[in-house]
Design goal:
- This protein has 204 residues and is α/β, with parallel strands linked by helices.
- It has ten helices and five strands.
- The protein has two domains: 121 residues, P-loop containing nucleotide triphosphate hydrolases (Rossmann fold, 3-Layer(aba) Sandwich), CATH 3.40.50.300; 74 residues, no CATH class.
- The chain is 59% helix and 12% strand.
- Helix 2 crosses helix 5 and helix 7 crosses helix 8.
């Protein structure tokens, strides 16, 4: 079974992913695969350089994510050029990991954690979509405290993402993380237990 796990900035989806890993799920972090997607020597690396210029290559020969980010942030057309290169490669790497995991243990739960799950259409390859939501004001406060960035920068990132309502409309399971860490863990536990009950019911 494949669960697509998503949520906005400072929603707690990474905390949720760690919780599911503790329960025995195989977790795939699409952010990490995103770093691998355009490593030197890959086709995506060459495409990124050809599209955005040689100055996106760092002194070490890798893609400088800050320079690249500066070229696409707040520029929808440029961002689409990048996602058209990178998203298919992340999807390919994801599929390799999913297939290897299920070959090893066919009945295991695989959790694909991806901030852009819905935007990239990767949810079409999952059995369920789980969304972690948080009130925008809470997300801003948490991101400022965690990353030391200005509130306005966080607000801009939230404005560029899907809204909670848009995510909820496409979700099978919604977990609200606007409260305390303890309450969040309780809700994660309940959601996980409900999943086990659904799987048991299907297998009978």
């Amino acid at each position: 079974m494949i669960i697509g796990l998503t949520g906005g900035i400072a929603s707690g989806k990474s905390t949720a992913a760690r919780f599911f890993a503790e329960q025995g799920a195989f977790v795939i972090d699409s952010d990490k695969l995103g770093h691998r997607a355009y490593e030197p020597g890959t086709g995506a690396f060459a495409q990124v350089v050809a599209t955005f210029g040689q100055d996106v290559v760092s002194a070490e020969g890798t893609i400088d994510r800050k320079v690249l980010g500066g070229k696409v942030f707040g520029k929808p057309e440029e961002l689409k050029k990048l996602t058209d290169i990178v998203w298919p490669e992340i999807r390919r790497l994801t599929q390799i990991e999913i297939e290897a995991s299920l070959r090893e243990q066919p009945d295991r739960i695989v959790v694909l954690e991806a901030a852009v799950m819905l935007e990239a259409g990767w949810n079409r390859s999952t059995d369920e979509v789980w969304v972690v939501i948080v009130e925008p004001a809470v997300a801003i406060a948490r991101a400022v405290a965690r990353d030391g960035v200005p509130a306005a920068a966080v607000e801009a990132r939230i404005a560029a993402q899907l809204t909670n309502a848009e995510r909820i409309a496409r979700a099978d399971v919604v977990i609200d993380n606007s409260g305390s860490p303890e309450l969040f863990r309780e809700r994660l536990t309940s959601a996980w237990q409900a999943l086990q009950a659904r799987r048991a019911e299907k297998s009978t």
